[in-house]
Amino acid sequence: MYILKPVAHDTIWGGQKLKQFTVDSSMQLGHLYMVSGRKDMSNIILNGSKYGMTLQELFNEKKHLWNMERFEEFPLTIALVDANENLSIQVHPDDEAAEQIEHKRIGKTESWVFLEPPLSGWIYAGCKCASTEMIKAAISNNEMEQITDRLDITKNDYVCVAAGTLHAMTAGSLVYEIEYGSDYTYRFYDYNRTDKNGNARELHIEKAIRSIYPEKHPAAKSFTGGNWIREKYYELCRLKDICGYKNNSSTVECISLLKGNGTYDNCSIKSGMSILLLPGEILTDITICDAIAARLRVTDEKEN
Description:
about 300 residues, Jelly Rolls, 2 domains, disordered C terminus
């Protein structure tokens, strides 16, 4: 069992909602990375013999034991996201597009759980165009917002954004986000926004065009607890009002505490933190008011 120190990340569109989970003094916190093994954003282990080691270092040491040798980095990234403003209208590549564009065959799929819904009641999700030629014409006419479809969202909705889907989180959203694969993100449009130095954010039009599937439109469904939701690469389950949890699966599970507290190995576990739970391990001495368990998809895995 490994308790992870969350990593705060300042963004141009972030806000104040994540400050309840961290002592970071940044004014625009966009992400609180609860599980991240990426080189520049890796969690630190807070307990046991691996205390002080980064998740990236731990993964390199343990991935052969976790049946994850095929990955360069820990394949799941989990964060809380505070969208104080709209995020850019963007797309992520699938494996084939990533291989062609970045020369690495690992794309990016993500899912969102809306802990607080957007102020507008909708997010950008899907494309109204039937072809990339129509998308190119819209870009030339500065009409990306007009051609991006909208999806109605309420509290506790779950949305899977498959690779190749046009999308953008919108202002007011507080989201649990799980990502599988790479961190490749290609922006189509960023509302002509500039940073503190007056510089416009980089767009990636050519890469985005090569990655998009205009026909992909995600759906929303309620996610309040009980059953596992299974996607192509990962699966997750909402945990509510329990005082312990056992990993009955055959793979590592990421337990992300949204509300609750506990202790393990003389280490405090607080809201906004995650624990890596190995197969067969039991999490005790903890009050879980609200949490999400997530793991890589294992073929023919039985439900907990």
